[in-house]
Amino acid sequence: MEITTAMVKELREATGAGVLDCRKALEATGGDFDAAVAYLREKGLAEAAKKVDRAAREGVIEAYVHHGSRVGVILELNCETDFVARTEEFRALAHDLALHIAFANPRYLSRDRVPAEVVEEERRIYRTQALEEGKPENVVDRIVQGKLEKFYQSVCLLEQAFIKDEDRTVEQVLKEHTALLGENLVVRRFARYELGESI
User: Fold this and answer.
1) pLDDT tier at 46 (50, 70, 90 boundaries)?
2) What is the pLDDT of residues 13-29, one digit of tens each?
3) What is the C-alpha to C-alpha distance for residues 25 and 44, in angstroms, rounded to an integer?
4) What is the Cα–Cα distance from 173 to 166, expressed in whole angstroms?
5) How confident is the model at residue 55 (pLDDT cuts 50, 70, 90)?
6) What pLDDT score does 50 carry?
7) Alpha helices, DSSP H, located in the chain
């Protein structure tokens, strides 16, 4: 199949990828538009994985206050250069992440930041529940591990389903933006405040 300029232009507009990358993707997929989009996404995510170890010391502090001023979020999102930090895409991502934190109320950034005593307490609770429900001892450990995974998905920002697209996690959204912007992106820290909550 002949790859036309119009096909390349359409794919470029849909994905934001370079002209040559779009042409290669269409050639590799025999002109199939959807397959070419998937091809470019996979290529971009593979490139993004290579960038994870690069230092990210630039970025923005994003502040978001929900309507009614009852919930507020402060978020530090880092990238590698001030050029990327000033882009509309980067700032929009920072805003969307602050909005997500206001809505989803994560307690930790990632599972490795959850204190060991919290994990052990959750484990103990899930084990007790399973045994009280009469579950056989040989399946209790699997039940506990499954509930612990759900716990991480509910309290760890990077593992939560992204509020704007629940088919993707926050971590997947970050990786996709890393591929799009060509730099390592890192949520360094965040704080969420709710009116009247105890510290």
Assistant:
1) very low
2) 776 677 778 888 888 98
3) 12
4) 11
5) low
6) 52
7) 5-15, 19-28, 33-51, 82-85, 88-104, 116-132, 137-155, 170-181
Q: Which residue has the tokens 């088919």?
A: 167
> Is residue 23 within 8 Å of residue 8, measured between CB atoms?
yes
Return the structure tokens found at 185.
Answer: 């992106």
Q: How far apart are CA 57 and CA 69, in angstroms?
A: 30
Q: Give the global pTM.
A: 0.70
The 71-79 sheet, strands edge to edge: 58-65, 71-79, 186-194
| Fold that domain 115-155 belongs to in CATH | GTP Cyclohydrolase I; Chain A, domain 1 (1.10.286)
pLDDT digits (tens, 9 = 90+) for 150-197: 999 999 999 999 999 999 999 999 999 988 888 889 999 999 999 888
To the question of domain 58-109+156-194 being in CATH 3.30.479.20, the answer is yes
Nearest alpha-carbon partner for 100 in 41, 179, 44, 174: 174
Secondary structure (DSSP) of 44-77: HHHHHHHHTTS---EEEEEEEE-TTSSEEEEEEE
- Please state the domain extents for the chain: 5-51, 58-109+156-194, 115-155
b vs e for 51-79, b when ≥16 Cβ sit within 10 Å of the residue's Cβ? beeeebebbbebebeeeeeebbbbbebbb
What CATH number should be reported for the domain whose range is 5-51?
1.10.8.10
Distance between CA 69 and CA 62 in Å, rounded? Answer: 16
